[in-house]
Amino acid sequence: MTQPPQGPAPDNPPNQPPAFGAPQGPPPGYPPSPPAFGEPQGAPAAPSQPPAFGAPAAPPQPPAFGGPQGAPAAPPQPPAFGAPQGPPAPPAQPPAGPPPAPPAGYGYPQASPQPAYGYPAPAGYGYPGQPGPAYPSPPTAPAQPQAESRGDNGLKAQILIVASALVAIALIIGGGVWYSGSQDDGGNEAKSDGKASASPTGATGGGTEKAPADPKGKLLFQLPVPAVAKGDSADTDGSWVTDKVYAKSGLSEVNGYDLDKGTKLWTVKLPGPVCAAAHWLSADGTKTGILFKPATPTKDKYQPCNQVGALDLNTGKLLWTKTATAGDYALSFDSVTVSANTVAAAGTSGGAAFDISTGKLLWQPKTADTCGDRGYGGGPKLVAIRKCGDYDNPVLSAQTLDPATGKVVSEYKLATGIEYASVVSTDPLVIGADVGDSAGDGSGLSDLFSIDGATGQLRARISVPGDDYGADCEISQADGCEGVIAGGDRLYIQTEDNSGATKQIVAFDVLTGKQTGQRADGGEDFDLYPLRMDGKNLIVYKGGSYDKGGQVLSIDGTTFKQTVLLQNPDDQASVDAETDMSPGGTSEILFAQGRLFLSQTYVSDSDRDEQLAIAYGPAS
User: Fold this and answer.
1) C-alpha angle with apex 294: 289 to 296, nearest 5 degrees?
2) 555 vs 416, which has greater pLDDT?
3) What share of the chain is helix, strand, coil (3-state, %, to 5)?
4) CA proximity to 591, closest of 540, 515, 520
5) How many CB atoms lie within 10 A of CB 472?
């Protein structure tokens, strides 16, 4: 799991933390590609009709990642100079009558917001001349030139036609996203006007992480894996950093450690194991939320994940423990998050929100037979993933809520049939989903939806096929995406390491969904992992190799210049320990106050010789 954001949400907050299918063609509802240049244009055909909602559509098969995009048809050759010119061809006439209105595309908004809850809620690619990967792009029909007079003017016109076609072809190949903005289907889709959101993040400059005079680092401390009974395993999800403490979940407990020495400062004992943990802190940067079981499970007795609690990380106190009920039954939860001073937990049977200081129940969504909050994304805003409909035809929506009251501020509905969605970022609002189960690789992510959080209007839909991108969203965690972050008007996503290339980071504009041309490269042997935002800058972990320690980088959000904040040591013991905590899978990575913390989120008896957590910091 990548960088779980820490501390109170800044003006431009860090993004939420925590091998996909083939690249996708244009989503249903988009126009087909124009004919190759030189082919007869003829009268435009009526737009093709998409299949009915829920019916599978066979996507076109794009070329392999990085492969040729298909040679255009040869342009017409001009006649020899002075040869007689034929009369200009009349322009093609459109069919009679008004053109039919295009239907709403798959994944587009379908209806108006639902009522409130029932309770009172960018130089170039990094290297000169280095081309970017040939990501899928929207077809852009070239403008049709008008016929000109004969002779030299006719020859010039044909040359201009050829040049225009080549430019259009380059634009077709160089893009990277199917985006919306030209369709008005009467729903909640926004036109792409290039203006800032009505709910901007307020990013105004660089971040707070400053480059040290010497980035050379050292191993600060290691925490051994707690003893686990033979054949057993346990979740150890949750790690946090404040200005005083590094805190980490253990076996049915949470411990606080000195930031530099690793000395244990406090222990909070729990009746059962931690089953989920928030990755955000309260507004004052000292509290967080957790879920745990009421007792330790045994082979004979299952224990539900139904206990919600809040921790004061600086004092090492469990502030309160609560449950939420639906009728006579206690709700079981899958995930928990924090926004402002609200702890929000949700699961398959519903959700609830509590005051982080007192434990007071703030609101609980009204449940119905076919609707319920499936999870929440936290941080600067609070966003619910709400699921309605039956099992075979679910309808998901992303609702921005008032954290204190649960009132719905805005809503965006995804297309019927999308089963899972996750919150990549709450401000700017970006939702990840596996559309039509097209990811095909277990990543839970095939498309990203950039949404105006104030209005619920769709800004752009970005296709992120697994052959090209390495981001991942945990389907059971609404707040659990890694390899993709967003801040200000940019979205940054990790590329896939196919064809022997390393994992890099590319940028998209959240207003248009187009690539900005920015790309960060870690070099021949080193992968890059986006952790979080720091103002307009990115905090990135650069993985090490078999004989070299990793690095933490700050990448300027405007120039993409890389600055080393921390260089981990190269001695073999340190390199081995760091390798065991490689990003993704069962690891969490935090970087705060010049220190890097890596930890495990799952342990078993076979991990007895490994470390639960390791920390690096400045050598001097």
Assistant:
1) 110
2) 555
3) 5, 35, 60
4) 540
5) 27
